[in-house]
Amino acid sequence: MSLYDGVADLTLEVDGYELEPLEQPISPQFTRRTTVIRLRGGGHEGVGEDVTYSGEDQEAFQREGSTLPLEKKSHTLDSFSQLLERLGLWPAGPALEQFRPYRRWAFESAALDLALRQAGQSLHEVLAREPRPVTFVSSMRLGEPASIEPLHRWLDAYPGLRFKLDPTGTWDDALVTGLVESRAVDTLDLKGAYKGTPVDQDADPTLYARVAIAFPEAWIEDPELTEETGPILDPHRGRITWDAPIHSVADIEGLPFPPRMLNFKPSRFGSVRALLGAYDYCAEEGIGIYGGGQFELGPGRGQIQYLASLFHPDAPNDVAPGGYNDADPAPGLPISPLAPAPSETGFRWGDAA
To answer: Which residue from 171, 187, 207, 348 could staple onto 219, CB 3.0 to 4.6 Å apart?
Structure first.
């Protein structure tokens, strides 16, 4: 039986939904905005989070309000998913096409949470998997020009912290030497698979060679394989992982070579069916997984921590608690690994509400 078979027939009553805006100022130039979807029915509530990065898209969604015709008494999780497939979740936008599945995932995760709560069951019970402590890393850039100071600041506060870093063209030999000496780097995200976004990073043969050689045990995520960079990374194929291109099993099968490891961001998959199908596929093919986040401000962060606890708890999961997004470390943050904290019912982690 597939993983999706375990949840597809959960019954689901939907009376309506509400949207809750969340925001967090990050810099004078950027405020992170997301939208919590509160799906209601049968005296229960299910939650999901739209993590679309465009603030304009989020504001348009929130202004639109609860206009989708979702109310019905005879849904199953699968029929509700099929309804979402037919509906126009984006009357305007998105700013980037890659954001389209993010809203679908917000509704699907809310529906999964609601169906489980109506059934009085938790996700791990339905899937017959035991939640385990979640290993996590802190993801960051080191500024422009790059400096090791942010990493040292965090290590001073949390000496055992591990990192997922975004190399850029200003990483020089001195910086790389300092990072190697820290022995705290698990993953290097080259951002070569991103196009038309603020985080794009050109395929730089010098940078690729520098980090691949200097960090012989680190995962190398999302390189852009060109005539110049392909041969440089060919000896390191076993450490190459993919994130941005992965939305489905078909995307995994279409990679340049079979991967040993992948970064799964549930919002990229859009539907519960697609995500659980990819988990099944990777289990069959012996492909490892670590989880990735999308700067969630609300219940979406707990949901990806929950999935990590069930499917890849010991991997370098980019699912750190929200406090690790701040520029300066605050005292008392949870440390890795996170203790299992699934709610008694539903698709929730900890005190998510």
So the answer is: 187
